[in-house]
Amino acid sequence: MQSSNAKAKVFVHAEGKEFHLTNGQVSYIVRVNAEGKLLQLYYGAAVSDRDDFGYLVEMQRRSTASCPVEGNLTYSLEHLRQEFPEYGTSDYRMPAISMAQANGSRITDFRFAGYRIGGGKPKLDGLPATYVDQENEAVTLSIDLFDAPTGVTATLKYTMFATLPVIARSVSLHNGGEKAVDIERLMSLSLDLPDDDYMFTQLTGSWARERSIVRSRLHPGIQQIGSLRGSASSHIHNPAIALARPETTESHGEVIGAAFVYSGNFEAHVEVDPFAVSRLQMGIADFGFTWHLDPGSSFQSPEVVFAYTSQGYNGMSHAFHDLVRRHLVRGPWRDKERPVLINNWEATYFDFDEKKLLSIAKQAQKLGVELFVLDDGWFGERHNDTAGLGDWTPNPERLPEGLKGLAQRINDMGMMFGLWFEPEMVNKDSDLYRAHPDWMLHTPGRRASHGRNEYVLDFTNPDVVDEIYRQMHAMLSTANIGYIKWDMNRYITEAFDVTRGAEHQGEVFHRYILGVYQLHERLLNAFPNLIIEGCASGGGRFDMGMLYYTPQIWTSDDTDAVERMSIQYGTSMFYPLSAMGSHVSIVPNHQTGREVSMNTRANVAMFGTFGYELDPAALSEKELKQVADDVAFFKRHRELIHQGDFYRLVSPFERDSRRNDSVAWMVVSADRTQAIVGDYRMLEHPMSPFTRLHLQGLDPSLRYRIQVRGGASTINGMTFGGDELMRIGMLSTDASASSSAEAGSANSLGNPHDFSSRLFILSAC
Ligand code: GLA
Prior knowledge:
Layout lengths: L1 E4 L2 E6 L4 E5 L3 E7 L5 E8 L51 E4 L10 E9 L18 E10 L4 E10 L4 E10 L5 E13 L5 E6 L7 E6 L3 E7 L9 E8 L10 E6 L5 E7 L5 E7 L6 E3 L4 E3 L3 E6 L2 H16 L13 E3 L1 H4 L5 H13 L4 E4 L27 H11 L3 E6 L3 E2 L4 H5 L19 E2 L5 H17 L4 E4 L21 H19 L4 E4 L9 H4 L4 E3 L6 H11 L8 E2 L1 E3 L12 H8 L5 E3 L7 H23 L1 E6 L11 E7 L5 E8 L10 E2 L9 E7 L9 E3 H7 L1 E2 L5 H4 L16 E8 L1
């Protein structure tokens, strides 16, 4: 039997006990055994279907095994690859579920109870999730597993996308029994792979240094990343990991990537067992988590999206980039060109009035900028970071004509107007706090920690979400505001839900994030044309959960172009350029003190949403001219940059002391007639080797003319075959004094040197 949907199909065999999901790119095969347990048989490159894949279940007597079935010494769950493993019934690895029952037991035995197959993809209530517009874009297999003593049903949902090598997986639990249970662990994905020959690849960092690529060999035992920060998923570890074969490069080799569509506490781990099976799990962090499930009620886990490719890390990135652009970001801004913006934060910090803002906007408009964003400081008594959060009305001294007046003036210049909010936070010095001290997340009788003088509002409480919605709705209704920057600048401490009882205290972090999602959803319903840019002290909440509501996210508070080369390179592993907020700021840079040319600052920021975060009055005439040129260049190419295929070429994380420290990447249009290569120098070294950049994604049968922007090159104006550029490589040796070792000779070309860069623009001719 076969249930098909365009290219995504589910073959059903063994009288409804074996399922083969495939779309011609990948296959995922699971099977129910005689005991009703759901086993994992295969995940990887697509294979042709056959009537029975049962031969893949290997049973063998292993002497120390615990065996659940009397008389059978070969059947142990410890030695089977499973889809929903449990602890305590002969498997000793980390389980996908743990559920405390009325008598205190945590033993469960979920067995197959039925399945459904449908076209498209059902929504996940209250949660961000990937979606399809048409039924034929995906097929969904739902498998029910039932634990008879408790009456709880677990439903595993698998959606295979028709044209991407991606599956979305989530789990829901329904308590059909008579007594409440407490869910203590529920992994959205649990995938047992047959070997351990992988590099665990993670994105790791901190504030202003987000998402460095770190790779380490899998080893026996558990390798884990996660976040317990409550409100922020990802300054430290991003909720996405990849397992790559050791020989995998950016362009070759097998990779399995998994990303969590969620912004709260998470864990992602791989457990390698004694037989080299690797159990990959991803879900809400179980530390501190419980969910009280009353009879008749259900709990839906967030979803994990996972991809398989044999085309290296770039291949994996393409799968996720397309997924985010087509099936996660929604609303009109999914398909519309994103505006080039100017933001006043680094230009003024808290020191501004309306006159200053209008002068920045006016000059920016002349340079071609399309959106003016007013950052922190416009509301309440917000003169510094100790006051005002929670009072979302304009400060009359700063904005005598209110938001309406300012927005009108900006609109009259022909620009959109955008506004900063930090909806989840409150200062003690605010009217909101004075009126509702209990609305701040705190544990009664204990000290409350702050972060940047801020306290976290209790978004588990619907009254709090209602009040913040009311205030934001009022602001968005009084003025023509087309964009908001939604900031979130601290982690949660002393978490406690003062409105609920003891049995619900393990729910606080999840309920908090559900409150955040709900506020986004309500605002987008009321203002569907609004573009929301996510932010959490820079890139502290850069995850697929937020991208469902905020099509772009401020990538990092570090605006230094050299630092951004690494941050954006790492971020691109899972997230497309259209999602990455990236601005040109002033030099010396405010985070690093580094001086980098305007050329390089723009050449880095253009591989993102692009904008400025400076006062144009501080620029020279020459720089202003360059800004106008850069903005015009970006607008000409933004469709290619945001919609094209992005390839990482030379990594800042694999530097080699013999050659110059370089970074390179490129984008190629879908029809492969246009491409832009970004080639960046970190540090220049004397007597460096001749270099060729092996381009990717071009059409080998087309010829491309190369135009160089922002620096010198001997190949400017020449044409080459796509095959030459990919197989021989594009000459990228520079003409610097240090490369030729003749001091004073070649730097007449002005390039390259520390922090220099060039763009190579390729057009098929
Ligand atoms: C955070 C953001 C910045 C800026 C400030 C304002 O740090 O990441 O971009 O908006 O807050 O306080």
